[in-house]
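agent: user wants the structure for tRNA/rRNA methyltransferase SpoU type domain-containing protein from Chlamydomonas incerta. delegating to structure tool.
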Amino acid sequence: MKNFGLRELRLVRPAGGEWPNEKARAVAARAVDLIDAAKVYDSLDAALADLQYVYAASGRPRAQDKLAKDVVLLRQVQDALPPAGTRIGVMFGREDNGLYNEELVRANAILTIDTDPGFYSLNLGQAVLITCYELFRAPRRSGLGAKRDPASRREVEGMLGRLFTALEARAFFTPYNRDVLHFAIRGFFDRVDRLSRQDVAAMLQVLKALQRTPSSPGSGSSSTESADSKEQR
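agent: tool returned. relaying C-alpha cells verbatim.
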C-alpha cells in the first residue's frame, strides 16, 4: 500500500484479535506507521460507513450474474473511477475464502483482476499489490458529477434498510425470492450513477409517503365540494 501512496488501512475483526501485533510489525519493513495507524472495526458496515464508492475485489465469476453487480476489470479501472474528491474504498476478503455474498452486496461494483480463466485465484497479498499499483497509476478525473455531494455507504444502507422494511410490511418478498430480489434491488441502486445525498433524501421522502396510512376515500372531495358551494352562495 505505502509503495503506491495508499495509507489508510481498515480491518474488520482481524485474525488473532489483537492489533497492531508484533508479527505484523515484523513484516512491515518501513511501513510500521501504516500498521500502527490502521483502524479496526467490529463490522463491515462500520468500516464502509463514510465511504462514497466501494469496490469489492473478487475473482469469482459468479458475482456479476447472481448479485446483479457491474464488474470492472482492474486494467480498465481508470475509466470507471468516480470523480476526484470521492471517498473510495477497495474491500478485500479472507485469504482462504475471499468475500461472502452478504459482503459483496455492500459494494457498488466488483473489481476483478485479469487472469487465466483456468486458474484465477491469487493470494491476498498479490491481489492487494496489483490493485494498489493500478490505482496509483490511474489518473483521477473531475468529470460530470464532480460537484454533486455523493451519498455515503451509511446513508445508502439506511435508505435500503427502510425500503426493505417497507416491502416486507407489504408482503412483497417470499421465502423463495427474498435473496434474489434483495440482490436485484441493491444492484439497481448501485448501478445508478453514484447516488447523491439529495437522491437518498428524495427516496426517503417517497418511502415516508408510501408508508403513511391512506386517507379514507372521498374525504378530500367532500371538503372541496363544500367550499365550492359556499363560494357559489
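agent: one observation worth passing along. Residues 153-211 form one domain.
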